[in-house]
Amino acid sequence: MVSSLPEMWESERDQRGAAYHEAGHAVVAWALGLVVRRVEIAVDSDDAKGAAEIEDDPTLDLLDRLAICAAGREAQKLFDAPTHDGAGWGDYGKMVVLLANREEKRQIEWMHRGHKRAFDLISLHRGKIDRLAKTVIEKKRVEADEIAALLAD
């Protein structure tokens, strides 16, 4: 069966959104000194599903950990790269877990601060995010060595 044109556009939109989302996570993590091992999209044949395998450093400052979580959605906004409405819910859940011991008002304040930190880092490294996202769109999966080369100045 041949896909209709609107379905093809939706697929391209979802892959683009996923690529910028994951590139946002990856570049913010990289900017904070973490190793990015892999970035991929179209996981399990779902065009909107992506993954970024990033080194975990539990000693990283809370604000920076929140920024990594928020970076996907912030990159999608900055690059006007939407996907489906459910994109980013897992990231939001990670933020809630990180802030579980704080009262709700403080959680919201910290989330806003995390988004601001992510936005600032994404704005600073906009070209790197664009370069990585375009490569991920083309290849669907990019490994650590190539990621490091793409993010080098």
From TrEMBL:
<dbReference type="InterPro" id="IPR037219">
    <property type="entry name" value="Peptidase_M41-like"/>
</dbReference>
<protein>
    <recommendedName>
        <fullName>Peptidase M41 domain-containing protein</fullName>
    </recommendedName>
</protein>
